[in-house]
# Entry
Amino acid sequence: MTLYQHIAEQTGQLIASGVLRAGDRLPSVRHVCRSQGVSAVTVMQAYYLLESRGLIEARPRSGYFVRARIGRGLAEPRMPSPAGESAPLQVSDFIFQILESVKDRSVVPLGSSFPAPQLFPFTRLGRSLAGAARRLDPLATITDLPPGNAALRRHIARRYHARGALVPPEEIVITSGAMEGLNLCLQAVTRPGDVVAVESPTFYAGLQASERLGLQVIEIPSHPREGVSVEALERALERHPVKACLFMLNFANPTGALVPMARREALVALLRRHQVPLIEDDVYAELYFGAEPPPCTRALEADGLVMHVSSFSKCLAPGFRVGWVAGGRFARRIVRQKLTTSLATMVAAQDALADYLGHGGYDHHLRRLRQALARGEAELVQAVERHFPPGTRLARPAGGYFLWLELPPGVDALALHQDALAHGISLAPGPIFSAQREFGHCIRLNFGHPLAQGPDEAVAALAELVARQSGRR
# Structure
């Protein structure tokens, strides 16, 4: 933790504990410089970080003050109660229909699955990609076949090490994005007709991959803040022949849930007892809002049951389609699956990312990205609190770029989706996050697209549509 992050974390804890309350003035920059023995630049960085998290606000010629805690006026969404039985899937047509609607650039992208392109260092990445093309070694078309570019895998292994996990480069398989990684992991440990456990709600990409492979899924309820229920999973493992679990433990899509350490350790221990592999989709791990990264599941287990899937698409290079799998005991199977499906990931893109990571700047970019996303989350939550009708519930994430809302009784998310599109606003309706098309009264909103005038106008229009449906206008 840097010095300014340490100061920000201390101040944030004082706010969280109630020592500093809404409206209280923070110590002046000059006072903190004297008391902490730091520079004015360090203090300003700390205050900027707290401001980006929505904890404090600057008042002209008055200094910094603690903001009213946003998100406290709305209750948390209720934990779901899935049917508890495995079922075949028929979701792809339904999901594709919804996804087509968010491609229109004239639509406010609250339903997008991606952050805004302007948040990423495409100019710098372009130079790395151009350099990779110039220095392309023809032999790389052979040497960079699975498991992939050696330099890139070493950089990834170092980042695992920084999070407390010893993952050798030989275990890492470069993939064409995280979606291919999920498919390869599922293929490595399942056969058509097998049962896979997923969260409820869950990211629709996992449902699509399971459907394509002819798998059945059983939905495990997930708390909107703390993630998958270990108790419910234990009951499912006792009743069903589950071959694998496909979970997001860090800032899950769509809820933003973060599985705390104690629950994560219990989950790993449970799967070890049953010898059921975990496929962890961890593409949002770098997008945390606090001073510390989320727990690394690979650091908690040593018997290779966890297949860790991630990519650079959400945190650095959208469009490059470069991801990876740390395959544990299944790494060799995953390499074979890769060789017999897509054969290889684009050689130049792998080299470009290795070049970018090797020249530094990645962590600086991530800090700026996290601050932008934390600021977007605070703005969107404020707008929802200000405009949405009584009965709305929201889950406040600690990272990622999604906000999960449970709407008042009487609101149909699919009908709301159509109404919102007619008003130039997209959203992601809850049923696309369930194998059984549950969550018909829930929506996911994206706060990763900074709007020129802020989200207030779009949220106000969306709230009016919600109020009409719920009869609370």
Observations:
- The two ends are 48 Å apart (CA to CA).
